Amino acid sequence: MEGKSMKSESQPLNAILLTKIKEFTRDLLLNLSNGHSPIILLDRFRNHCILPDSNCFCSSNLPCGKQVLTLCKETHVHRLDVMLRVLLIVQKLLQENKHCSKRDIYYMHPSVFLDQSVVDRAINDICVLMQCSRHNLNVVSAGNGLVMGWIRFVEGKKVFDCISSPNTAHPIPVYVEEIKDIVNVADYILVVEKESVFQRLANDQFCNANRCIVISGRGYPDIPTRRFLRLLVENLHIPVYCLVDCDPYGFDILTTYKFGSMQMAYDTKHLRVPEISWLGAFPSDSEKYFVPKQCLLPLTAEDKRKIKAMLLRCYLQREVPQWRLELEMMLEKGVKFEIEALSVHALSFLTESYIPSKIHGQVNI
């Protein structure tokens, strides 16, 4: 029992998904009524592997095998129960043209779902089964990202006029698919890992001196932030740079923007931004910019474990070998530091010297 391909591009997507849900549940009930244990096949996707020869298809958006779910396995019974409960909620959302969050869904059956991650996996399973993105199910993430700079756009009936006050933060819209009428006068997009750096740029009036758009996912980026960035890159055709902490988690956030995440690998083509360049902070920046020793923190055992695991990812070998060299340098040096450490000599060093020199001097990889 597999997700069926879309029947007609002219049909509204809601109607197509409702038809798929109806056919899926009908087949399921037919199997059960005939005394058969239904077999559900889910395509498996990945955005990276650890094959040493890197001759893989991780970046092709193609499935890499199938996962079999059956009622014959006790571990699958609860998973299928959760999936069907969530599917019923999704069906109602589509029928009534309403939206809700993953958290809303969890609280509809907390005693059954037990944990939010169980709901998250069910939603991912449904997306794979129905061959769609999460927002197509009318399930939205609570927005966490911020944007400012030389851009104006409309989402639904709301106008986001960043241009009139380019250093003022605006929340990134949740309904990215409704964004239209984009007006851009920026030369590039700058993605910063943390809200503290975003606020530093805002306080220093960075966008007054630099025609850019600044985005922050405030840590690991949520889906709206990643989809919003993907939308801008596709429509504006301007360079995009990323500034993260010089530590394993900053690097992992960087790769999430560029290559996507394993959890959402089935939808990577709509979420990743292959065009993004790493602006910093590089391990080599600690010496180049004279970061004091007291600002350098030793890598923990967990940091080292994470770095060694990331070094095995196929895309570091195949697509960005320079990134791999910097990550190896971090492990060799045995230290990490935050972006703010670059401002140890002057509060506005980051905005007045470091970022402009990196961009204008093309010191990025």
TrEMBL record:
Keywords attached to this Swiss-Prot or TrEMBL record, sorted alphabetically, are: DNA-binding, Isomerase, Magnesium, Metal-binding, Nucleus, Topoisomerase
* Record-annotated Spo11/DNA topoisomerase VI subunit A N-terminal domain positions: 79-139
Catalytic reactions of this protein? ATP-dependent breakage, passage and rejoining of double-stranded DNA
Keyword check for Signal? no
Protein name, UniProt field: DNA topoisomerase (ATP-hydrolyzing)
Upper lineage is: Eukaryota, Viridiplantae, Streptophyta, Embryophyta, Tracheophyta
Q: What class of enzyme is it?
A: isomerase
Signal peptide start-end: none
Q: A GO CC term? A: nuclear chromosome
The transmembrane segments are: none
Task: Name the GO terms of the biological process aspect.
Answer: meiotic DNA double-strand break formation; meiotic DNA double-strand break processing; reciprocal meiotic recombination
Species per Swiss-Prot/TrEMBL record: Pisum sativum (Garden pea)
**Stated family:** Belongs to the TOP6A family.
Where does the record place it?
Nucleus
**Could you tell me the EC number(s) of this protein?**
5.6.2.2
State its cofactor. Answer: Mg(2+)
Q: Where is the Topoisomerase 6 subunit A/Spo11 TOPRIM domain?
A: 188-359
Q: Where is the active site?
A: 107
Stored Pfam families: TOP6A-Spo11_Toprim, TP6A_N
A molecular function annotated in GO for this UniProt entry is:
ATP binding
Q: What is its main location?
A: nucleus
